[in-house]
From TrEMBL:
Topology in the lipid bilayer: Multi-pass membrane protein
Residue stretches spanning the membrane: 31-54, 66-85, 105-126, 147-167, 193-217, 262-285
A GO biological process held by the record: adenylate cyclase-activating adrenergic receptor signaling pathway
Record-linked SMART domains: 7TM_GPCR_Srsx
Classification via CDD domains: 7tmA_amine_R-like
Pfam family, one: 7tm_1
Gene field: LOC116308299
Keyword field: Cell membrane, Disulfide bond, G-protein coupled receptor, Membrane, Receptor, Transducer, Transmembrane, Transmembrane helix
Main subcellular localisation: membrane
Protein name stated in the entry: Octopamine receptor-like
Length: 392
């Protein structure tokens, strides 16, 4: 989220050793912009492909994957709508020239899509816990209408958080808490209360939900694994109730295996976002700790944890769940197989047409030769004219 650690921007109130760390050359600006453009391409193509797979394949249209589509939608919109502003800011060497309205619009988009992405991850963790804790009743409880209602609530929640940006926290120019402003050529948000609320409700609360849900998931996994291990006898002779219990345990274990992909998503999420928000809170309440750091170190913090990792998260999400999720891998293999078969069909048809053309031309040549030879034979069989009997 661009709005939070803006104390790490060029600001006249920051000591010189901290400000100097953000003076970048044309080469550095071009390199950072090239990396961000690559992230934009991967994020837009990858997340668009995930949505295409879910909506065109019936076996992927399950509640968990609808939450994944919500995550992919947030990352896709972030890449094509919010990330270009970041690329512009980098190319201009962090000198904002588009005015206050564009600055506020950029920060609002950033907050909206990042909050929706994080909230979707939290919803995925809750959905996974419900599916593992009660697998036999999950489908009847988690209907499509309930999933759609939940997704609508998630996006409304994200929109409300982002719209807090539009509140005029203090109209006094002398006040340090004036919301989103453009000062000294820098687009930033500087209200401590607003940024704290965004950090807590937009990141730490969903992160807490995710950690609790996955803790409960593995707790259920341990219980189910122990239960299956004790049931060593054959299904024959078991009562109907015991058989049902064993079926439930087996289903739960299969769902735990499927949870591996979501655990990887959570790990990637924490690596990309945790340093960012920790630095944000430090810059809000103990900025002097950052002032004491060497210039090269603060520059590294900004490039890695502010410009790179939070943005690259949008590109990593589709890679994670298309390479680790069994359903997505199966769909991708089928699509690749169909494309190969189609390509082979095109090549074989072209080859067949070529052979047919060649055989047809050869046939024409042979028929013309036969015609010529026939006419020659006919000419050779034509009787010679009778000689004049008076001729000696």
């Amino acid at each position: 989220m661009t709005s939070i650690p803006q104390e790490m921007q060029n600001n006249s109130s920051i000591p010189k050793n901290f400000t100097a760390s953000y003076v970048i050359s044309d080469c550095e600006a071009g390199l950072q912009a090239a990396v961000l453009i690559l992230i934009l391409i991967v994020a837009s193509v990858g997340n668009g492909f995930v949505g295409f797979c879910v909506f065109t394949h019936q076996n992927l249209q399950v509640p968990t994957n609808y939450f994944l589509v919500s995550l992919a939608t947030a990352d896709f919109l972030f890449a094509i709508l919010a990330l270009p502003f970041r690329i512009y800011d980098v190319l201009e060497k962090y000198k904002w020239e588009l005015g206050l309205a564009a600055c506020r619009f950029w920060v609002w988009l950033d907050l909206l899509f990042c909050s929706a992405s994080i909230a979707s991850l939290a919803a995925i963790s809750v959905d996974r816990y419900l599916k593992i804790s009660s697998p036999l009743t999950y489908n009847s409880r988690m209907t499509r209408n309930r999933v759609r209602f939940t997704l609508a609530l998630l996006w409304m929640y994200s929109a409300i958080l982002a719209s807090l940006l539009l509140v005029e926290w203090s109209p006094d120019p002398a006040d340090i808490a004036r919301g989103t402003i453009v000062e000294n050529g820098v687009c930033r948000s500087d209200d401590k209360i607003f940024l704290t609320i965004i950090s807590v409700l937009g990141f730490f609360a969903p992160l807490t939900i995710m950690l609790l849900m996955y803790f409960f998931v593995f707790k259920v996994a341990v219980i189910q694994a122990t239960r299956v291990a004790r049931q060593q006898q054959s299904l024959r002779g078991l009562s109907k109730k015991s058989r049902k219990r064993r079926t439930k345990s087996s289903i739960a274990l299969l769902e735990v295996k499927a949870t591996k992909t979501l655990i990887i998503l959570l790990s990637v999420f924490c690596i990309c976002w945790c340093p960012y928000f920790i630095i944000s809170l430090i810059s809000l309440y103990r900025i002097e700790l950052i002032y004491q750091l060497p210039g090269w170190f603060t520059k590294t913090l900004r490039i890695l944890f502010v410009n790179f990792l939070p943005n690259v998260n949008a590109a990593l999400d589709p890679i994670v769940y298309t390479t680790n999720n069994h359903q997505f891998r199966t769909v991708i293999r089928r699509m690749v197989r169909k494309q190969r078969e189609r390509a082979r069909g095109i090549v074989s048809s072209v080859y067949s047409e070529g052979l047919y053309t060649m055989s047809e031309s050869r046939g024409r040549r042979s028929s013309s030769l036969r015609t010529k030879s026939t006419s020659a034979v006919k000419n050779s069989l034509t009787p010679l004219p009778l000689l004049n009997p008076n001729h000696r």
